[in-house]
From TrEMBL:
Coiled coil: none annotated. GO terms for biological process: carbohydrate biosynthetic process. Residues 287-342 form the AFP-like domain. GO terms for molecular function: N-acylneuraminate-9-phosphate synthase activity. It comes from Paractinoplanes ferrugineus. CDD domains: SAF_NeuB_like. This is Pseudaminic acid synthase.
Amino acid sequence: MTKFGPDKRPYIVAEMSGNHNGSLDRALSLVDVAAEAGADAIKIQTYTAETMTVDVKHPRFQISEGHELWGGEYLYQLYERAHTPWEWHQPIFERARERGIEAFSSPFDRTAVDLLEKLDAPMYKIASSEITDLPLIRLCASTGKPVIISTGMASVREIAAAVEAAQGAGATDVTVLSCTASYPAPPEETNLRRIPVLAQMLEVPIGLSDHTMGIGVPVASVAFGACLIEKHLTLDRADGGVDSAFSLNPEELRLLRVESERAWQALGTTHIGPTEHEKEGLRFRRSLYVVTDVKAGDKVTPENVRSIRPTGGLEPDSIGLALGRTFTSDAAKGTPLTWDLI
């Protein structure tokens, strides 16, 4: 049985990333606000600058100058600033359990998986840039835990290969996240219409890892079948932080939780016709009524018969057949017009 799916409300993941700003207290506060906002999980990233890259100041290791958030930074220095120290993992996981939400992580190498296994991480997330690291995917899958694979930048072939690697290593619970790996991501490049395409192609649950501003895009994704929504979280965008510019604040996360569930509830079924809660409204459709007192022998005219609310009389379209006929008996104002009355 999969952890996420169309029969369950969207699972909300608050991504901490580097928004702890180098403070364990802030990291724990992010766990608290995620829980208070109704998130199902807090996610971190498990790496060090050394496990991600090497300290070389060469253009190959430098982010392009035009990048909106990290232009000109070298990878090693960025990862030094953004990483979550490994000694923080246990208190973060413990705080999450205390607050009744799950804590898990994106590992980036074998040593990260080893650490997370010691902490009994409930699942693993493969970051978009690691989707081609099939040995890492197989390692995570071999733990028997659910595997979530983000697909930013990936081709159909790469996505299929990643899912095949996970399932081939024994994963029975794989979820794929549609993702646009730009920070922030333009809404017009989010391509939510690919969600049902991925679902049909891969036959696994599909979610959304979203880096757009606000909650409009992730709420809309629910209509396309997204069963998991991941958004970055900050205590306050004004405080800065590597990802704060495109992260949700606590109130926005709360709204995401509420509105994504409302969107999921609204999907309903393919039934066309009155619902249970519409039945009262059916009584107040229009029908033909006598609107002034009439006597037997009077002619039916627009002045004494009109289409009004409620139901009970002839359908409004019968007015053409009724006009000019003769009343067969007296009728008081407010009497439904029926064929036996004329």
